[in-house]
Design goal:
This protein is α+β, with helices and mostly antiparallel strands. The chain has 3 helices and 5 strands; from the N terminus they run βαβαβββα. The mean pLDDT is 84. It holds the Pfam family Coatomer_g_Cpla. This is Coatomer subunit gamma-2.
Length: 100
């Protein structure tokens, strides 16, 4: 994966459009904190959290939004939204998370 600077994530997200967008929710199991969950996601996807990066995967632009939540029992849920220029790439990222 190659990380390329983006000056405005929101504009990049809006301009990519929802045609190849994939959204799903995942149970990340019990974690001590959201910080631990973030580290697990970073290791799984090989990505770093940032507000100004466009990822290139297989020469395809990819943007991802991740929302995490933790309950009183420390169970973590993640909502992953991926937009790319190729629906197969968006699907592949979700398959990686689902199998992770």
């Amino acid at each position: 994966m190659l990380k390329v600077g983006v000056t405005n994530f929101r504009n990049a997200w809006e301009s990519m459009g929802p045609d190849c967008e994939r959204i799903d929710e995942y149970d990340l199991g019990t974690r001590e904190s959201l910080a631990e969950a973030v580290n697990a996601v970073i290791q799984l996807l090989g990505m770093q959290p940032c507000e100004a990066r466009l990822l290139l995967l297989c020469n395809v632009n990819v943007l991802a939004r991740i929302s995490l939540g933790i309950d009183g029992a420390k169970e973590v849920a993640m909502k992953l939204t991926v937009r790319s220029e190729d629906e197969n790439v968006s699907d592949a990222i979700h398959e990686t998370v689902a199998s992770g």
